Amino acid sequence: MRRSDQRRDAVFACYQQDVTGRPLTTLLADAKPFTIELVEGVDANRAEIDEVITEFAKGWELSRIAPLERNILRVALYEMNFRDDVPAEVAIDEAVEIAKKYSGTDAPGFINGILGSAAREMAGAAAEPAEGGEH
């Protein structure tokens, strides 16, 4: 199974857990390792990921973002912030493609805007020299 398919499965598992409260162990019973890693990573870092969403979703409270879009953002931001093997551009492209296929017409642009802003800030933070370091 391709990573794209496993990302989609991770989004759906996060979505189902978010909406129904079903335990992740049930939702991930037959999942592939990459899907499990993504879902468990989102779950373990949800508060931090949700802070990023809230910061960049100008004028939107987290609870107002549709559950599917919220979980597309969570999976992408997990990859962008916690996985070194996934370039931000790939995480963003994959998230936008999932939104195009499964969400409303405005969702891909909304998701791209939030993730693009987060990626720009991450790139800017990475370019800044560490305090107290040599210049």
Give a written overview of the molecule.
The chain has 135 residues and is mainly alpha-helical. 72% of the residues lie in helices and 0% in strands. It is built from seven helices and no strands. It has helices at residues 3-20, 24-27, 33-44, 46-56, 67-82, 88-102, 107-127. It starts with a helix and ends in an 8-residue tail after the last helix. The model has no long low-confidence stretch (mean pLDDT 93).
List the helices and strands and how they pair.
Layout: H1 3-20, H2 24-27, H3 33-44, H4 46-56, H5 67-82, H6 88-102, H7 107-127
Helix pairs in contact: 1-3, 1-5, 3-5, 4-5, 5-6, 5-7, 6-7
Quick recap:
Helices cover 72% and strands 0% of the residues. By secondary structure, it is mainly α. It is globular and about 45 Å long.
Q: How many E-type strands?
A: 0
| Alpha-beta classification | mainly alpha
Mean pLDDT, nearest integer? 93
Number of helices: 7
Span between termini: 46 Å
Low-confidence stretches: none
**How much β-strand is present in the residues?**
under 5%
What general form does the structure show? globular
Q: How much is the radius of gyration in Å?
A: 15 Å
- The portion of residues assigned to helices is over 70%
Order of helices and strands: HHHHHHH
Summarize this structure as a short list of keywords or feature phrases:
single chain, 135 residues, mainly alpha
